[in-house]
Design goal:
mainly alpha; two-stranded antiparallel sheet; 56% helix
Length: 166
């Protein structure tokens, strides 16, 4: 395919710069520079565009509040980081690597803003809540509560409101 015909390029510009444009003067300059470089591509040249959907601030804060409150309510973990890693493993938010003795070990993935987009974080949250509803998770967090029904009731009371907005 050869160069873009002038009429097609003008139609594309109307859409690209009319319907969608950068935010503020700096954003508009960056947006226009990007598209100018795309329009100047020669046949065979390629461009890779990577996007990042910002995480919802209110969602992020509620999830972090849930983790912090549960950490403070549980009986097992002394360090928040250990608790969070356990929660990530339980939710399956891990990569698997060969262990030092031949098996495989889970290594928790990050949930930082830079590493995880909004939709992915919402799925991690759902998986964490699902894991927290298991008898294993409840027994781990509250070994002092011997009755599984009481542990489940405690978790359900705690999670009320945290799993409905994911």
């Amino acid at each position: 395919m050869g160069p873009i015909p002038a009429a097609d390029a003008e139609a594309a510009r109307r859409v690209i710069f009319g319907a969608v444009d950068g935010l503020g003067e700096k954003g508009k300059r960056q947006w226009r520079r990007l598209w100018a470089s795309i329009f100047r591509l020669e046949p065979g040249e390629i461009v890779e565009i990577v996007s990042h959907k910002a995480r919802s601030g209110p969602f992020h804060r509620r999830h972090m509040a849930m983790e912090q409150a549960l950490f403070e309510a549980q009986e097992r973990f002394e360090q928040f980081r250990s608790f969070r890693d356990w929660l990530k493993v339980g939710a399956g938010h891990v990569e698997w690597f060969p262990g030092p003795k031949g098996g495989v070990i889970p290594v928790p993935n990050s949930i930082s803003y830079a590493e995880l987009e909004d939709n992915d974080m919402r799925e991690v949250h759902v998986q964490m809540v699902r894991f927290l509803r298991t008898e294993h998770a409840q027994r781990t967090l509250w070994p002092g509560i011997k009755d599984p029904v009481k542990r489940a009731d405690a978790m359900n009371a705690f999670l009320m409101g945290f799993d409905e907005w994911a």
